[in-house]
Each structure stands twice: as structure tokens, then as C-alpha cells.
Amino acid sequence: MHRRPLLTLLSTLPTLAWAQPAPTTPTPTLRRTADPDIAFPPSARRPWAAAVPEIRICLLGGENEADRLARYGAYRQLMEDTFQLPVRLFPASDFAGAMQAFSAKQIEIASLGSAAYAGAWLDTKGGVEPMVAAEEDDGTISYVAVMVARTDSGIANIADMRGKSLAWADPNSASGYFIPRHSLRKQGIDTEPGQYFSRTGFGGGHEQAVVAVLQKQYAAAVTWASGQGDPAQGYTRGNLRAMVEKGMLKPGELRTIWQSEPVPNGPMAVRAELPTEFKQDMTLFFLALPKAYPDIYRQIMRGSGTGFRTVTHQDYAMFVELRQEEAAARRRR
Q1: Could you read off the pLDDT of 235-244 as tens digits, one per residue?
Q2: How far apart are CA 308 and CA 104, in angstroms?
Q3: How far apart, in whole angstroms, are the C-alpha atoms of residue 61 and residue 86?
């Protein structure tokens, strides 16, 4: 199959984010948390429990394991009570861990970034599919990658980063690696170590990368944010907001020095082979969660928003192509 050259693809990323090819099959009915007929599913054991006797959910990295498990405790209990089944949480150290768990069929559900979903879809040969993605306060299902530096560092913009160090978040993260790296290259910035930046490295997750900046191990780091609300407060949702709410980051301690084009919010993904009824129940659980249990919703989504919206694989087709092009470029090197 003929593919566009990598540079051509990257030069059109902002357009591709919104201009997807025309579908060849009927477009599924879009469902949103805001729909008046969305009601939380009743508590009962389902017939699909024979095929799914335990719901295993992968929790992504970005913060320490204890905080993750505590943040998801009420969510786990609610899902157990709703479907009358044991629910197990599996913290993954990074996106790669979640992708490998899907490949090994060790989990049923995980919330993935856009690039991680594409990687899992390729690794499993289409064995995962998206259910819902977060909807922001303005009704979009997008977020932004941001580069942040200490407010007292004297770094005010990307030009001030020449000759300084930069921390990526995760090699499988859209906002923490793929999108900022390619967007900066489009601006003419060579992201290889020792070129524009004195050095680059991976922080080990979004939270860890920001902590490295706070501790002056790096001059700046990239992470994800809703792009809405007050930047000094960590925006309305995202890693920075969560760190402010946990007391790890003081309001105004960091400043945003660069922001990407909008990036499609990553999906809540599920193994494609699971029963259709299971996937329908899970989709309804997530769609109804923000209104029925707003505190639990805020905990797992790390901030506010309007809820969820159903999504399809086509919403992430550009990231599949991006990963394929990246792999081809590595083989050519």
C-alpha cells in the first residue's frame, strides 16, 4: 500500500486532526453524557459474565502507584456494585505496559492516549477498539500538549529554550512525546539532543517529568492539559491540574512556554473480541458516570469537563498512520 512520505504527513497533522477521510460505512450514532436519555446502568449481574468473570482494568502511569490506586478506589467499587463482578486494577508504569497487557489479553479495559491506542491497535492487529473519549468544557474532544518551565527560570517562550534541557514524558505518549516532537520539527526546531536543546530525556511519566522541572533537573518538560481555564491553576483538566490539587504543584509555580495544536483525546479502549453486550454496558457506564457520580468522574479524569462522547477507530486513524510512518523511518535509518 502506498504511503505518504513522513514529512508530508507531519506537515498536515493539524488538518488531519479534524479532516478525516469520508467513512465507507454508516457513521455510528454519536452519544454524549449530555444526552437526556443517558441513565446509569442498574445494578445486576449480566449474562456476559460467563465470558468475562472478572473485569481487569489497566491504570496508566504518570503518578506514583499508591496515588493511582487511591484515586481509583471508589471507581472500582462502583463498577463491582454495578455489574456484580470482581474488578481488579493493574497499575502500569508507562503506556508500553498497557499496550503489552492488551496484547497478552491480561486486561479488558484501559484509558489510553491517542498514540498509545494506535500502538495497541497495531500490536494486536485490530484487537482493541475505542469506546468513549473525554469531552471538554467547550464541547470538543481534544486537549493540547504544553511545555512548562519554572516561573522563576527566566524562560518565557520556546526561543528561550535554545541550549537548555527538555524532559519528554513517555515515548508512547502523544502529548508527552509524539506531538510536541513533530510540532517542534515543523517549526524548524531539531529535537535531537545537542541540537536546539542541550539534552533531552524521558521523565518516566507525565507527573515525573514535571517533578524533574520543579527539582531543576530539566529546564522544561512537556505534558498534557485541557488547554482551557487558568494555566496558573493547571487548566481545567490534565496532569498539571491534578498536581495542583494534590499539593505537588503550587499555582503559578510553572508557566506554559509552548502549546501544540489540538490533539484528539485518547479513548477508553476495550478488547475488540469481548461480547458486544459487555462493550455496550461499559460504554453506558462511562457515559452516565459524570452526571450520576461526579466526584468519581473527577477523580479518574483528573479534573472537570462535560463528560464523555462515543468515538470510533477512525477518530485515531491519523495516529495509526503516524506510527507506521515512524516505524518505516526507523527502518530506513
Answers
A1: 988 899 989 9
A2: 28
A3: 23
